[in-house]
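Quick start: read one record
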Amino acid sequence: MNPTATTATVAVGDYTFRVTTAGPEDGAPALLLHGFPETAACWGPVTPALTAAGLRVIAPDQRGYSPAARPVGVENYAIDNLVGDVVGLLDALEIDDAHLVGHDWGAAVAWVVAARHPDRVRTLTAVSVPHPAAFDWALREDDDQRQRSGYISVFRHGDSAERALLADDARLLRAVFGDVDSAQVEAHVRALTEPGALTAALSWYRAMDREFGEVPPVTVPTTYVWSNGDEALGRAGAERCSEFVDAPYRFVELDGVSHWIPEQAAEALAEAVLARIEGNGK
C-alpha cells in the first residue's frame, strides 16, 4: 500500500481477514472498504495523504477476498454478514469507533454500517455508490441507471460470469479496470483468480434482496463522492443521496473521472476524506 504499510491477519469469528495498516499507531482510525472487483490494494494511492495527516489507515480484504474468509454459499454474503464483518473487525482491533470510507460495494456496506451502528462510525465518506435507498429508487425510476446496471443481472445468475471474466488469462476481468495502473490491476486479478475467489466476490451481487434498499437514513457526518464520468452509477441516484442523510452532508462531484476513483483521483478523494474528518466538509 505504501512503504510503511504492513499486512497481517485478524480473526473475526470463524474467519480470518487479511488487513493492511499504515500510519501512526495512535492515530485516529480510518477503516477503508474496497469494492468489486478490487482488493485493499485500491487504497494504495490514497493512503499516503491520510497517514501524513496523522490517521491510522486500516484496509481489509473483505469477505470472499481474504482466502481464510471465503465461505461457500451465496447466503454467506448477505448484507447482514458483510456489516457484521466490519463491526467484528473493529471489535477485534479494540476500536470503539472509526472514520469509515468505502468505495463501490465497500460504500454500500459502509452506508449500512453507519445506518445501523452510528455509535461505531465517527464520519462516513462513501465513494461512487449512493445510499442504498437512493440507488434502489434510481434502479426503479431512472432509465439511465437501469441501463448502467444491466451487468448486475449477468453477475447474479449462473456461473457464466466467472467463465467469461476468467477466460483468456482473465482478459475481461482486466478490461473492467480501463486504464487503471497495470500493477494495481494485477494485484486485484491475482487475488480474484485464487480458487473460489471470483465466485465469492460475485456472491455479494447474488445475495442482494429487497432488504438491500430498505436502509434508514444515516445520522453521522457524511460526504458522498461521485464522478460524472462513472460508467456504472448515474446522476439520478447521486443527487437523491442527500435525502437519506440526517447529519452534516457534502456532495463532491468529480469531473470526468472513471468509476475507479481511489486509483485515479486519489488526491481529490483524500482531500474529501480529510475535509470531512476535520469538519470542513459541511
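The domain at 6-278 is CATH 3.40.50.1820 (Rossmann fold).
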